[in-house]
UniProtKB/TrEMBL annotation, chain A:
Protein name: Branched-chain amino acid transport system permease protein
Pfam families: BPD_transp_2
Main location: membrane
Keywords from the UniProt entry: Cell membrane, Membrane, Transmembrane, Transmembrane helix
Claim: Transmembrane is one of the keywords in the record: yes
Organism (species): Pseudochelatococcus lubricantis
Keyword Membrane: yes
Bilayer-crossing regions: 20-39, 96-115, 121-142, 163-185, 218-243, 255-280, 292-318
CDD domains: TM_PBP1_LivM_like
Compartments in which it is found: Cell membrane
TrEMBL record, chain B:
Transmembrane segments: 12-34, 66-86, 98-117, 148-167, 188-217, 229-258, 265-284
Membrane-topology descriptor: Multi-pass membrane protein
Family classification: Belongs to the binding-protein-dependent transport system permease family. LivHM subfamily.
Protein's UniProt name: Branched-chain amino acid transport system permease protein
Swiss-Prot/TrEMBL keywords: Amino-acid transport, Cell membrane, Membrane, Transmembrane, Transmembrane helix, Transport
PANTHER family cross-referenced by the UniProt entry: ABC TRANSPORTER ATP-BINDING PROTEIN, BRANCHED-CHAIN AMINO ACID TRANSPORT SYSTEM PERMEASE PROTEIN LIVH
Record Pfam families: BPD_transp_2
Localization in the cell: Cell membrane
InterPro entries: ABC_transp_permease (IPR001851), BCAA_transport_permease (IPR052157)
Length: 329, 294
């Protein structure tokens, strides 16, 4: 598929590795310093959504599969995690694991159905299946309906560390994010990631080379769903709330927008996109439905003018400059 | 009178509602199929254009005093013009790109429209009175049939049938089908394909607006009516397959009916039954019931 800012050319390129290391160091400093300057809840929200967007991008950017129903995994995990923490009284790490496992399971079922069709049908199927989850959550007794599941306890991490302390919670969220992000990075750079990209770019050819394309797609789908669930579970603990907003189609749209703004198929793009979209929601919340219009307009602008996204554009720029200077030398 | 322990009044009432919903599913999935055939774009804005049709109808009545019957013509024309503009200014730029960009772009348009109307009118929805000529109803003995609902069913069947006829049996339709197969060749024969594409999108948008006009007196006129229905219509399209016009029509009506019957026998599942049917169809016949394997 041609739509992704390709990293294929960059794979053997040492320059992009040092660039990534630089970005990681900068991000580390930023993460450590940020809670002293910015409202920590906002940071935690941004981190949860960044992980969500990265998980989504694993499927879209590297698998070429546009899922329009990722809210299902995010939201279902939030409910399961909330249920585990509140009703079953599990510790936070176990609750999060329960939520993640539930999304992974959901991902197995939905992924197995959705990969039977390709391209645009895949998107419509994932959207329809996610809407089914939404209606289920509207009716199911344990979700609390329109009110959502409220007052989910953050609890004590490993039974020791009190997560009601904001700084402790922040460190925990950062740790969860880094674990999730690390898994995605490792996956993308692994042989599995290479095959996934090969399938994205030319599926019949990958199949003719002996790769079982559907198996790879399903595995990518499940991984993406599980990590989206990890993000959703963590979000449920941060806000102590799981609500219908988390499973609504608009949430699926938002995660697409985050990835599109940041740059599909780039490692850091979804993080940047998530921060921008979350900031937009936070600072423009008083404008009501204008946020929806702004998001719509951003979609249109991104598709028409800015398909590579922010990070994608930066990569293009750097690569062009490097290419130019080596030509002179 | 009872059938399977359910009063016939309730049963036929729900069957009627099912048929009405099915009429809207059929008209909308028909438009989606026509647009997808020629433009290769899944029009996410289809629901928003349906909502737009209902709102134009409401505004014509409340701001200009123009009645339902005129709105039946004017609203589709307005939305059709809007669609033509959209196609000329935006969609035209992305035909060469991957299909997902069409979905993302029209999703943006849908958000923009829904957000705009939410900002202006809120989400609660506004009533639109049934036109005087169609008030009241007929007692059929086994059930009460409101005149307006009978009109919607008849009108939608006529609209679907004439669209099918237009595309499958007329000369214009043969150009359209030819352009779907091979646009370059058709253009070489002297047919203005870009114009045809614009008109096709406008036609599809107009069709969804027509559904919106008909829906206005039945459902509340609300900014969220579009996004609520479009996802179900997507499922209908997956079930029917977008390859065939008649397939879209038949599966639209059939799924409306199934939804209505589910409401009688197992109401908890009525909002999800279409998605369940979709899942089953994907298992049994992944290409869709009427789809060509591609």
């Amino acid at each position: 598929m041609s739509f992704v800012v390709s990293e294929r050319k960059a794979a053997p390129n040492l320059g992009s590795t040092s660039l990534r290391v630089l970005a990681v160091v900068a991000a580390g400093v930023l993460l450590a310093a940020a809670p002293f300057f910015v409202y920590p809840i906002f940071l935690m929200k941004a981190l949860c959504f960044a992980l969500f967007a990265c998980a989504f991008n694993l499927l879209l950017g590297y698998g070429g599969l546009l899922s329009f129903g990722h809210a299902a995994y995010f939201g279902a995990a939030a409910y399961v995690c909330g249920y585990a923490a509140k009703t079953l009284g599990l510790t936070p790490e176990l609750s999060i694991l329960a939520g993640t496992a539930a999304s992974a399971l959901l991902g197995v079922g939905f992924g197995w159905l959705a990969i039977r069709r390709q391209g645009i049908y895949f998107s419509m199927i994932t959207l329809a299946l996610a809407q089914m989850v939404f209606f289920f959550c509207v009716q199911a007794p344990f979700t609390g309906g329109e009110d959502g599941m409220q007052a989910i306890p953050r609890g004590y991490l490993f039974g020791i560390i009190d997560l009601n302390n904001t700084l402790a919670m922040y460190v925990f969220v950062v740790a969860v994010f880094l674990i999730g992000f690390g898994i995605i990075w490792r996956t993308v750079d692994s042989p599995f990631g290479e095959v996934l990209r090969a399938i994205r770019d030319n599926e019949p050819r990958a199949i003719s080379l002996g790769y079982k394309a559907n198996r790879y797609k399903l595995l990518a789908f499940v991984l993406s769903a599980a990590l989206a669930g990890l993000a959703g579970s963590t979000k449920a603990l941060v806000f102590q709330l799981a609500s219908l907003t988390d499973v609504h189609w608009a949430m699926s749209g938002e995660v697409v927008l985050m990835t599109l703004i940041g740059g599909m198929g780039t490692i850091f793009g979804p993080v940047v996109g998530a921060v921008i979209v979350v900031a937009m929601q936070n600072y423009l919340a008083h404008l009501g439905s204008w946020v929806m219009m702004i998001q719509g307009a951003t979609f249109i602008a991104c598709v028409l003018l800015f398909r590579a996204g922010i990070v994608g554009t930066i990569i293009h720029y750097l690569r062009a400059r490097r290419g130019g200077s080596s030509g002179q030398a | 009178m009872e059938i399977l322990g359910i009063s016939s009044q309730a049963l036929f009432g729900q069957v009627l509602i099912g048929f009405i919903n099915g009429a809207f599913y059929a008209m909308l999935s028909l438009g989606l199929a026509v647009i997808f055939g020629l433009l290769n774009i899944v029009n996410f804005a289809h629901g928003a254009q349906y909502m737009l049709g209902a709102f134009v109808t409401w505004m014509l009545l409340n701001y200009l005093g123009i009645n339902y019957w005129l709105a039946l013509v004017l609203a589709p024309v307005c939305v059709g013009l809007f669609g033509a503009m959209l196609e000329r200014t935006m969609l035209q730029r992305i035909y060469k790109l991957d299909h997902i960009y069409g979905l993302l772009l029209t999703f943006g348009v849908a958000l923009l429209l829904e957000g705009g109307f939410r900002q202006q009118f809120g989400v609660s929805g506004m009533p639109y009175a049934i036109p005087r000529e169609l008030q009241g109803g007929q007692n059929l003995g086994f059930m009460f049939l409101p005149n307006y609902r009978a009109w919607v069913i008849v009108a939608s069947v006529v609209v679907c049938a004439s669209t099918w006829f237009l595309i499958e049996k007329t000369r214009l339709g043969s150009y359209l089908r030819a352009a779907t197969e091979n646009p370059k060749l058709v253009q070489a024969f002297g047919v203005n394909v870009p114009m045809m594409i614009t008109l096709t999108y406008a036609f599809g948008a107009g069709l969804s607006a027509l559904a919106g006009v008909m829906a206005a007196p039945i459902y509340q006129v609300s900014p969220v009516m579009g996004s609520n229905i479009i996802i179900v219509v997507f499922a209908v399209v997956v079930i029917g397959g977008m390859g065939s016009i008649s397939g879209a029509i038949v599966s639209g009506f059939a799924l409306g009916l199934i939804e209505g019957l589910t409401k009688v026998f197992y109401p908890e599942a009525s909002s999800t039954v279409i998605f369940v049917v979709m899942a089953i169809v994907l298992l049994v016949k992944p290409a869709g019931l009427f789809g060509r394997t591609a």
